[in-house]
Amino acid sequence: MEIVYVYARRRCDFGRPCNFSDRPAELHVDVLPDPALAADFVRRDPCDVAVQCAQEMSEHEVNTERFESEARGINHVEGGWPKDINPQEMEQTIRFRKKVEKDENYLNTVMQLGTLMEHCIKQNNAIDIYQEYFEDEEEMVDSRERPSAKTINVFRDPNEVKRTATSLSWHPDGSRKLAIAYSCLEFQRAAKNMSFDSYIWDIENPSCPEMTLKPASPLVCLEYNPKDSHILLGGSYNGQIGYWDTRKGSQPVETSAIEHGHRDPVYKAIWLQSKTGTDTFSASTDGQVLWWDIRKMSEPTERLVLDLGRKGNLDNALGAISLEFESTMPTKFMVGTEQGLVVSCNRKAKTPAEKIVCTYSGHHGPIYALQRNPFFPKNFLTVADWTARIWSEDIKESSIMWTKYHMSYLMDGCWSPVRPSVFFTVKMDGTLDVWDYLFKHNDPTLSLKVCDEGLFSLRVQDSGALLACGSQLGTATLLEVSPDLSTMQRNEKALATAMFERETKREKILEARQREMRVKERSRSEQSKEDEGRDTDAGDESAEQLLARAERDFFEIVGAELKKRELEAGQEQIGAEECLPLQVKDVCDEEDR
Amino acid sequence: MAEVEETLKRIQTQKGVQGIIIVTAEGIPIRSTLDNASTVQYAGLIQQLVMKARVTVREMDPQNDLTFLRIRSKKNEIMIAPDKDYFLIVIQNPTD
């Protein structure tokens, strides 16, 4: 039943001013109750109704701007004296004191307190109640707790235009300070008003940097001098090298001349071991490695062109992206190139041609990080493209251990200074991975997402517990790793030595096998050429003969692989090795089909 | 007066005692065996600490009160005997 009431108005009456008038109520519709409708409903008894008498609340998230705080000291002066006494006046204070000393309350109190105090003093002298029992016993760190890392502080780039934190360096003594170099590495993407400054932060104070360094061009790399903690070396985007003294201010003390420096951004600059403590060297993608003495920055003391043809030809040179120098081996150094090769060089070679000793190939992309293991200098870590690889100096064809291929680019990595088998890597998707190679090879022991943007650089502090990583938007995060990742475990050195030796031996055997197979192939192909020459129906090989030859080859390959497998099974000791050459499995699988 | 002197002397001669200070509740040092600068510093800092400690104890249980306060640090031990109007502070270097 529809109730409808219709109002009608003529079109010409629209818009007329209203003329209100009073009239009594009119009954339009009267709907009487209809009991027949009740048949459609069922009586419900009891009724369950929820009622709440509470305040209505709603949830809303608010995030305020970062609160900038500053710590300041206050100077206290003597106070507490009653109003009429001037603390500076000796007479008045002495008089006050004398008065108090005559007070009876004072006398009684002091007597009481004196007895109480004597009791405690005698107690102290009798037994040292805070003595450490069992101090000499070693703590049995047998905790099965999972490794973890937590963020302690975040240092944000104070400028409006955010730049990438490309390099970090910890202060050499005590590591209370962190120097971060900021620059924009994308070609010609740097905004016009981008600031060139790099900062030194005090790790306790993330709200503002302790000191600013003002170079002429943004700094790509920055290193503290390990001998003198006031001096920093910086390599900038325009190829200049400069050094700063933190006592002398924000401007560089001296910079290299542009004509004699690099022609591309200086990607890495390191301090060298020398008596004067002033030698450094730098590398850049223009293919040169230059040595400098900071006392005279106008031109480099030595120059090396990374030309593998050993002719010193700049056009053929490989661009260098990372440098490695270990003070325990002062004559050797290594350079990581853009082309994916690691070049090992000897500083003390007589001719420039002999400077380049050998190369290690195996990476597909620029080598962003290169570092020797602090405990085993013969093994070094390289981080490039989508993997991190560990190499042994003796094996030049391939790395001895490598991680799997990740989904995103690995940008930087370094060994832990306290544990020989632990290293850290950072990726472009903002994750930090901690690898413990004695524990697990396939996956990182700990993988943390530090931030949403890519992480570009990483540096571990000398104690091994703190590490800092810098991101694309200039945010540096300070993390603390759990103690089981930063203290050496029992037998760790021995186990790590065994592991490295085992892997090196395995690679050597694989190499020897490869060489054997190649020699065999060559001799076989030479022999078959001779056979063909002797064959009267040259070129008339029937299908069956072809099949027979194919079968023979197939069985030979299978036999060789099986033998190789047996050899490896004999070599395996502790720890699963999943990084077996995948080619072995694949070949067999294909042939099984 | 003489008893006070005697008590203080007795405390002073105990093994390892480095200094004694008597301070009023407001923080004014009355008697001290240390130099003025240290005395003033100790008096000011310790007075605040004693106030805080007393309030803490009282708050946990209003019937309770602070009787003695000992601060053990790496180098020495500061013992404070508080009272309503005065404190007695003794710095001792306990025997190792």
Within the largest sheet of chain B, what's the order of strands?
A: 2-1-5-4-3
Which outline of chain B best applies?
globular
Share in helix of chain A: 10-25%
Largest sheet of chain B: 5 strands, antiparallel
Shape of chain A: extended
What is the total tally of β strands of chain A?
A: 28
Low-confidence stretches of chain B: none
Task: Kindly report the oligomeric state of this protein.
Answer: heterodimer
How many DSSP E strands of chain B?
5
Radius of gyration of chain B: 14 Å
The CATH homology group name of chain B: Dynein light chain 2a, cytoplasmic
CATH fold name of chain B: Beta-Lactamase
Q: Give the count of structural domains of chain B.
A: 1
Termini separation of chain A: 78 Å
Mean pLDDT of chain A: 81
Tell me what portion of residues of chain A adopts beta-strand conformation: 25-35%
- Poorly predicted runs of chain A: 536-540, 573-593
Distance between the termini of chain B: 35 Å
Question: Would you write up a description of this structure?
Answer:
Chain B: Belongs to the GAMAD family. Chain B: Its main location: cytoplasm. Chain B: Residues 4-92 form the Roadblock/LAMTOR2 domain. The complex is a heterodimer of chains A (593) and B (96). Chain A has 593 residues and is of the alpha+beta class. Chain A has helices at residues 90-102, 104-126, 352-355, 483-486, 492-534, 543-571, 582-592, and strands at 149-155, 164-170, 177-183, 198-202, 211-213, 219-224, 231-236, 241-245, 254-255, 266-271, 279-284, 288-293, 302-305, 320-325, 332-337, 342-346, 356-360, 367-372, 379-384, 387-392, 401-402, 410-415, 422-427, 431-436, 446-449, 455-460, 466-471, 476-481. Chain A has seven helices and 28 strands. The longest helix of chain A is centred in the last third of the chain and has 43 residues, at 492-534. Chain B is 38% helix and 30% strand. Chain B has helices spanning 2-12, 36-60; strands at residues 17-24, 29-32, 69-72, 77-82, 86-92. Chain B has a five-stranded antiparallel β-sheet, sandwiched between helices. In chain B, a hairpin with a 3-residue loop joins β4 and β5. Chain B is globular, with a radius of gyration of 14 Å. The model of chain B has no long low-confidence stretch (mean pLDDT 88).
